[in-house]
Specification:
Blueprint lengths: L13 H18 L5 H8 L8 H12 L1 H11 L1 H17 L7 H12 L1 H16 L2 H15 L1 H16 L4 H20 L13 H12 L2 H31 L4 H25 L7 H21 L4 H28 L6 H30 L1 H42 L1
Length: 415
Amino acid sequence: MQPPISTLTRKTLLFPLALVIFEFCVYITNDLIQPAMIVITREYGVDATWNASAMSAFLFGGVILQWLFGPLSDRVGRRKVLLSGVAFFIVSCLATLWASDIHRFLALRVLQGVALSFIGAVGHAVIQEAFEEKTAVQISALMANVAMIAPLVGPVAGAVFVDYLPWRWAFVMIAAVSCVSWLGLFRYMPETVKPSKEKLPIKQIAYDFWHLLSNRHFMQTTVSIPFMSIPLVSWIALAPTIVISDFHYSSLAYGLMQVPIFGFLILSNIVLAHRAKVWRLGSSVHYGYVFFLLGWLLIVLGGAGVQPVMMLVLGICCFAFGEGIAMSVLYRFAMTASDRPYGVTSSVIGMLHMLGYALGVEVFKHAYFAWGVMGFALCSTVCLLIYMGLSRGAVAHAMMLRLDGEGDAAVTASH
């Protein structure tokens, strides 16, 4: 195995590029299709409450097999598992051509969501293993910029797409681009673990999972991330209903409203990538609190009836910026909070995140249908309070461990 990479060059970036193309394709299956959900539900003869269920099903797909793919890649190698996952995603996208009712469509959304497991449990694990710590944070931020092009262009492209082409053909185009990613991964993806011929030890997987789930600092860091992201994820799921159905904006206007939100998310990742090696690791999480609090204030104003849609968009913009400068750092802290293998650790993180997002969308959906924008604001308040409480403790513990490690290294060097 090669030592961790500390310098970014054109060659070392080819694998992250191929991976992020796959990540882009997975995300855009959600972002491109969200504007079409109103058309899809009408075609299938169901009501608007099913709009957000497509995203919940997609996120649930990211949960059901996370427990397997990380440990499996620890055993048989990262390359085999990730390449198989990309191929599975391509087939599940093409199968949408034969979805004849809402139930089959949602079943395929679950299968497409399984691809989230390959990204988190395998792809991101390789990034953490192949690159030195601050370089891994930098790579993660750069990858997030590319991946966030999906929610940036997806809603606008989807709004235009459904006006001119059948919505099913969006999945055909996504499958075609995913084939490019598969070829890039096949050519450039490194193998960061030594494959073993031993059978996959289910008892060992259960032990590793229990070890992680009972690790207070790991759980504190890992669970903080969904609470940070749920308001943005819920906005993505509910925006077609809020903007188009309830406030009667056009599909194009809905798409354009997403541009500043994900523009702020991209900008924040650019800031983090640029400053990652200058800022003390963890400080960006504290900087993010300012933007979360400002966003919360704007969302509450919207809930109180002051320009509801505008305030929601502006508030989510602030949430997006705060999330962008905090996400990669918290993810790194979660990955290094335990001595378990990265494949298992990534699996548990991914499962908890996807489960949190799926449940969060459902809670936000019911709150919005019960109390309107105020329901969205109340849920955002709860998420923010929990996130700030968890993340402060997570950062403090992670920095204490790193200071202790530097002290141990200094003592060893002196001898």
